[in-house]
Amino acid sequence: MIFNFYRNHIFPHVLNQVMQVPSLMDARRELLLPVKGRVLEIGFGTGVNLPFYQAVDEVVALEPHEAVFTLAKERMDAAPFHVKHVQAGAESLPFPDQSFQQIVSTWTLCSIAELEQALKEIHRVLTIDGVFHLVEHVLHDESKTARLQHLLTPVQKRVADGCHLNRNIEQALLDAGFVFEQCEYFNAAGIPKIGQRMLMARVRRAP
Ligand SMILES: C[S@@+](CC[C@H](N)C(=O)[O-])C[C@H]1O[C@@H](n2cnc3c(N)ncnc32)[C@H](O)[C@@H]1O
Q1: What is the pLDDT of residues 106-145, one digit of tens each?
Q2: CA-to-CA distance for 59 and 132, rounded, in angstroms?
Q3: In the sheet where 82-86 sits, what is the strand order?
Q4: In this structure, which residue's CA is closest to atom 4 in ligand 1?
């Protein structure tokens, strides 16, 4: 009961604040600038990405957590394009094959319970010429920090709604059959070292 209260009434507000750290906002701006047309956003959260879309017609906002999505309302009302909420997990996307040319994920792949299945689904709904744009925190390249990430992930999953600190997202994307158009690592300022290493990438289906 206490955990449900935390998950539904406290965690969404903490998430909304944490996801607006300036270095993350800078990364959103860079990632989303070239995104155009109709977009599927995986793990829409509280809608923090909306003001960064410059040339978008519609955002299909996939977000399973109702209390988190509730906090997106003001940003959705202010968006100069249509935002359609779909309450579902990425492991089973309710869309036909090849139905999106642009798919976005910002700090969501860490939280998906069945990552391999979700990437298979993202691959399925992406068009042949489509791009999956993502920025994610990942497993650190320093072994000491990586060990700490493995150690703390069970606790992190509990307090941060399923978030894994220790995922190798680049490898997961390769395993799912994506090829990289862009693959850049950076350390985000203002984030503790165990969650600081970021991957910004744009990937396509392998030909
Ligand atoms: C760390 S938050 C990031 C939110 C948002 N993308 C942002 O950049 O602020 C992770 C998000 O993924 C969502 N999520 C968790 N499991 C998911 C799943 N299986 N499929 C899609 N989204 C999921 C969470 O509810 C949460 O909104």
Answers
A1: 999 999 999 999 999 999 999 999 999 999 999 999 999 9
A2: 14
A3: 82-86, 55-62, 36-42, 100-106, 126-137, 197-205, 178-187
A4: 45
Between the CA of 146 and the centroid of ligand 1 the distance, in Å, is 23
User: 2-205 belongs to which homologous superfamily?
Assistant: Vaccinia Virus protein VP39 (3.40.50.150)
Neighbours of 152 (CB within 10 A): 14
Residues with CB under 6 A from ligand 1: 15, 19, 42-43, 45, 48, 62-65, 68, 89-91, 106-108, 111-113, 162
What are the residue ranges spanned by the domains of the chain? Answer: 2-205
pTM, rounded to two decimals: 0.97
How distant is the alpha carbon of residue 174 from its chain centre? 17
**How far apart are alpha carbons 1 and 10 in whole angstroms?**
13
Measured by CA distance, the residue closest to atom 5 of ligand 1 is 45
207 Cβ contact partners less than 8 Å away, ≥ 6 residues apart: 179
